[in-house]
């Protein structure tokens, strides 16, 4: 009996040619776009199946389920894919900006299904796109809008009950369930400038100068840097004009030490609860800032794009300037489009030093 000859190993080209995805590439089938991408080893780029690019040799092709997987493997998008992605980003930003305006200008909260229908997406897809652009969910954004209207009502002449209903809360109880989270205090205390609210604070020293750390019942509500400790206290008083400011005890000194350690080495992170208080727009900006990783920077224009308001560059800069939580909300990582450091509430030299410590200078 003749011995059978050993089978020859399949070549890389043969493996690709036997893959049904290769047939879609050869046909430049646009219906396959979104199902997979292919990368070319010799050029280092990935393409959609329907790309009109010159067809590669099969032995140089690698298939990936998603563009993200291809880029994780070190491939970059080809020109058309990059242009398509930029156009998709702009389209998503426009749709989210339209949804944001709807939430800002209507008292009754639109449902996720209604917002998704207006954007021409499924609720699941719209939820993902909205959060990717703004950093928050549609529900969180709607809640922030109601809180903004509530704050504006309390600053006017309306009664607390009228302000609650005018803001879009269906009942007093529905508002009071979240009043501490949205205002940080009771409505009458907010109207009174923070009266009856205890704010504990302490002043220490770090390599960047004097540092003031304050916290409410909800968490750290201020991290202020400067040269003059008295000026820092005045800044805190302006933020909470009628709150009870209480000097921190020995237990609070541990909070201060952890914040100082974070300032000295921002990469370690700050594992403390934060009491973030601002307008809906400011909170969107601050949330986007917290998504900038240490060692990286973003421009004011990029932040405006991320929150779905590409024309609000100046407003983004103003929101950065209104930040009372130095380093914890990293406005020092925002620079001008040309890479210049621009301004910083606590001084450009401190901004430069913080970026140097993070390796982003």
Shape: elongated
Helices and strands: which structural class? Answer: alpha/beta
Biggest sheet statistics: 4 strands, mixed
What string gives the helices and strands in order? HHEEEHEHHHHHHHHEEEHEHHEHHEH
Structure explained in plain terms:
This protein is of the alpha/beta class and 361 residues long. It has helices spanning 12-18, 20-26, 67-72, 79-105, 112-119, 123-134, 138-155, 160-166, 172-176, 179-183, 187-191, 229-239, 250-264, 280-290, 300-306, 313-321, 348-358; strands spanning 37-40, 45-47, 61-64, 76-77, 198-206, 209-215, 220-226, 244-247, 298-299, 334-335. The strands form three sheets. It has a four-stranded mixed beta sheet. It has a four-stranded mixed beta sheet with strand order 7-6-5-8, with helices on both faces. Strand 1 (37-40) and strand 2 (45-47) form a beta hairpin. The termini are far apart. Residues 1-5 and 158-187 have low confidence and may be disordered.
């Amino acid at each position: 009996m003749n011995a059978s000859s050993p089978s020859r190993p399949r070549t890389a080209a043969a493996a690709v040619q036997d893959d049904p995805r290769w047939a879609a590439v050869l046909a430049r089938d646009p219906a396959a776009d979104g199902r997979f991408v292919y990368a070319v080893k010799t050029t280092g780029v990935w393409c959609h199946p329907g790309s009109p690019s010159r067809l590669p040799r099969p032995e140089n092709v690698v298939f990936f389920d998603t563009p993200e997987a291809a880029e994780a493997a070190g491939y970059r998008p080809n020109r058309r894919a990059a242009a398509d992605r930029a156009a998709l980003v702009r389209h998503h930003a426009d749709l989210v900006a339209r949804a944001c305006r709807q939430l800002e200008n209507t008292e009754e909260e639109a449902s996720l299904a209604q917002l998704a229908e207006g954007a021409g997406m499924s609720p699941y897809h719209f939820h993902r796109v909205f959060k990717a652009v703004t950093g928050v969910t549609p529900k969180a954004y709607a809640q922030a809008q109601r809180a903004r209207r509530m704050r504006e009502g309390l600053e006017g002449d309306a009664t607390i009950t009228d302000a609650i209903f005018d803001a879009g809360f269906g009942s007093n109880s529905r508002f009071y369930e979240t009043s501490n989270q949205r205002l940080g205090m009771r409505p009458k205390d907010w109207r009174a400038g923070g009266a009856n609210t205890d704010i504990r604070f302490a002043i220490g020293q770090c390599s960047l100068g004097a540092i003031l750390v304050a916290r409410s019942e909800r968490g750290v509500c201020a991290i202020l840097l400067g040269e003059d400790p008295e000026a820092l206290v005045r800044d805190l008083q302006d933020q909470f004009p009628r709150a009870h400011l209480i000097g921190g005890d020995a237990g609070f000194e541990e909070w201060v030490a952890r914040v100082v350690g974070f300032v000295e080495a921002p990469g370690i992170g700050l594992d403390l609860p934060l009491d973030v208080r601002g307008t809906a727009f400011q909170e969107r900006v601050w949330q986007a800032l917290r998504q900038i990783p240490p060692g990286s920077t973003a421009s004011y224009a990029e932040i405006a794009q991320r929150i779905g308001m590409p024309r609000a560059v100046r407003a983004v800069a103003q929101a950065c300037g209104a930040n009372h939580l130095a380093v914890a909300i990293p406005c020092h990582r925002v620079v001008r489009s040309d890479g210049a450091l621009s301004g910083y509430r606590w001084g450009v030299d401190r901004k430069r030093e913080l970026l140097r410590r993070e390796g982003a200078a």
